[in-house]
Inverse folding.
């Protein structure tokens, strides 16, 4: 490694250590446990790194002896040493590849392990976790922090061991050649290391500022380049202001980049100069010693080469604490996520929903959304402290039954708790008091898979992944054939549309399905529901945001989806609400009225009041249902 590279390495390591927060107790123990799982490969990796360090010291010594042999005119010895240097070089290259392979397999294995652990664990977290967490912060745990933890095995551990061996061996050999020159050369070491740490901290501040500015610029472009963001900008017709705003952000990134680049260049130049001075000391003092006859030319060359090999590991070891702390903090940030306990968990004794038609029952249900401290981390929400609100009951003593094959509608004001009931039935949350039953069984006693197979939910937004139609549909039935997919699409009134597309089922739907209209997206989610064939269907405001024409098509698809199934319809249009077997009026988390459409209208209560509002008024007679 050249002195310039050593300088750059020192600088970046110093920059990597700004204000690291302490890690929690137990982190080291857990890291060591992961190391024990890989002890065999880890031992081979460290052993190979040690041998490489020994070979690195051997080459300068052999080079010095080759110079002495040349001076003595000993041809045989010159050839022998040259062959030894070649053999060492070949051995170093071969062993380097082996060590690199071990490093790569160890590191990539650790990345795979941690990423799958985090991903699987996050999948088990409640919906409240995702509503609070900043997606970018969570993705950072899967990427930046996992990679930081991986470096502890692939770089830091072997680096510390091999650098200690290299420093000890190099120092011993140099002292053996000339302890005086070695001591003088090492006096310059503080001049080399200390500025690196001080300048590194200063550059770290610039680096953090650059990261913040880059993040702001990327966030701006991400939001503006998404389909909803681009639409919003176009609707309000402010492209010039958007351009000026982005140019300002990009200009700030440029300015701080120039400032960092200049200071880095000054820093590297200064340290390279110091390293050159150290070599000048070796050649100057060593040359005088050679003239005096106390040292030969070969020793001077060996000392110069060894000095280069000495400064690199010494500088690395000076930053070893930084490397270790950085790696442990990365591990701790990953462990933070893994230590979050999912509020909804499957019992070891969980069973399945009994076969046959399945009814639904809510008995004395009470529920309060969890506080942030129960489901999230301040670092994932990118706040200093978590919101302390939570624990306020939003569902109060709700009881009702839906017999197999019945349709029950739930209506009420916005925020009354209608969607919360749907989430409790699908077991996205668990009740605080009371019981929710499906097929006569408490949902807390059922397996997750059984609940998902039995209860199907269609939400208002009709979310689709940025994948093909086939992939989105097979989310409900992974083994479904193309014929089955087209049958479901036909029942959802989308068969002809998809068949006419150039790529058919391979058509990519776009981000959140924006290549399709709102009604088409909703019918795709209904087709997905039909493929899943659940025994209980929950329609959560499934047509609330659709125009009348789209509603007609979606309603026809919904009628197909509801046929022969137990159904709970939330805040649906009057065509469905009117025909429900039972209507529940929910206000402030309480059932205030229940009965059929005509019974509730006759009472002239809250339902009748909602009926008079536009959101519950009959649809205009344009081919759609009317009341």
């Amino acid at each position: 490694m050249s002195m310039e590279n050593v300088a750059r390495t020192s600088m970046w390591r110093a920059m990597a250590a700004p204000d690291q927060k302490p890690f929690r107790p137990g982190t080291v123990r857990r890291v060591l446990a992961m190391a024990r799982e890989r002890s065999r490969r880890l031992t081979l990796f460290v052993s190979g790194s040690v041998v490489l360090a020994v070979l690195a010291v051997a080459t300068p010594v052999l080079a010095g002896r080759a110079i002495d042999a040349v001076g003595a005119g000993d041809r045989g010895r010159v050839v022998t040493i040259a062959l030894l240097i070649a053999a060492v070089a070949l051995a170093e290259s071969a062993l380097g590849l082996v060590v690199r392979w071990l490093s790569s397999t160890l590191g990539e294995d650790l990345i795979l392990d941690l990423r799958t652990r985090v991903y699987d664990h996050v999948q088990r977290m409640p919906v409240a976790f995702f509503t609070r967490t900043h997606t970018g912060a969570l993705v950072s745990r899967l990427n930046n922090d996992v990679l930081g933890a991986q470096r502890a095995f692939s770089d830091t551990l072997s680096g510390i061991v091999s650098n200690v061996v290299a420093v000890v061996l190099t120092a011993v050999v140099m002292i053996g050649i000339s302890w005086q020159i070695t001591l003088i050369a090492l006096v310059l070491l503080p001049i080399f290391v200390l500025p690196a740490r001080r300048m590194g901290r200063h550059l770290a501040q610039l680096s953090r500022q650059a990261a913040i500015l880059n993040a702001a610029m990327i966030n701006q472009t991400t939001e503006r380049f998404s389909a909803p963001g681009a639409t919003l900008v176009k609707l309000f017709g402010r492209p010039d202001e958007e351009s000026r705003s982005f140019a300002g952000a990009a200009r700030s990134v440029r300015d701080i980049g120039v400032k960092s680049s200049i200071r880095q260049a000054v820093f590297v130049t200064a340290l390279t100069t110091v390293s050159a001075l150290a070599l000048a000391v070796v050649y100057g003092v060593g040359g005088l010693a050679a003239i005096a006859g106390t040292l030969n030319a070969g020793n001077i060359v060996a000392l110069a080469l060894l000095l280069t090999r000495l400064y690199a590991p010494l500088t690395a070891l000076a930053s070893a604490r930084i490397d270790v702390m950085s790696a442990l903090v990365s591990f701790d940030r990953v462990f933070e996520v893994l230590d979050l306990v999912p509020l909804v968990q499957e019992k070891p004794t969980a069973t399945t929903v009994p076969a046959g038609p399945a009814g639904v029952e809510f008995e004395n249900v009470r529920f309060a959304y969890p506080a942030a401290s129960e489901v999230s981390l301040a670092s994932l929400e990118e706040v200093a402290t978590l919101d302390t609100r939570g624990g306020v009951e939003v569902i109060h003593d709700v009881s009702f039954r839906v017999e197999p094959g019945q349709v029950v509608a739930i209506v009420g004001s916005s925020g009354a708790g209608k969607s919360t009931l749907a989430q409790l039935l699908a077991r996205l949350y668990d009740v605080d008091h009371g019981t929710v039953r499906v097929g006569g069984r408490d949902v807390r006693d059922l397996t997750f898979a059984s609940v998902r197979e039995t209860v199907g939910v269609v939400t208002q937004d009709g979310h689709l992944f940025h994948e093909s139609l086939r992939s989105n549909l097979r989310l409900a039935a992974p083994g479904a054939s193309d014929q089955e997919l087209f049958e479901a699409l036909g029942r959802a009134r989308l068969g002809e549309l998809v068949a006419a597309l150039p790529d058919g089922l391979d058509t990519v739907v776009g981000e959140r399905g924006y290549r399709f209209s709102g009604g088409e997206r909703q019918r795709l989610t209904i087709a997905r529901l039909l493929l899943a064939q659940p025994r209980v269907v929950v329609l959560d405001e499934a047509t609330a945001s659709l125009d009348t024409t789209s509603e007609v098509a979606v309603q026809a698809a919904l009628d197909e989806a509801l046929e022969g199934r137990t159904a709970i319809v939330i805040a649906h249009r009057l065509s469905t609400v009117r025909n429900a077997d039972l209507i529940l009026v929910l206000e402030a988390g309480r059932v205030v009225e229940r009965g059929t459409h005509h019974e509730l209208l006759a009472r002239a209560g809250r339902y009748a009041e909602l009926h008079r509002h536009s959101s519950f008024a009959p649809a205009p007679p344009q081919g759609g249902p009317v009341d």
Q: What stands out?
A: Residues 360-616 form a domain with the Rossmann fold fold (CATH 3.40.50.300).
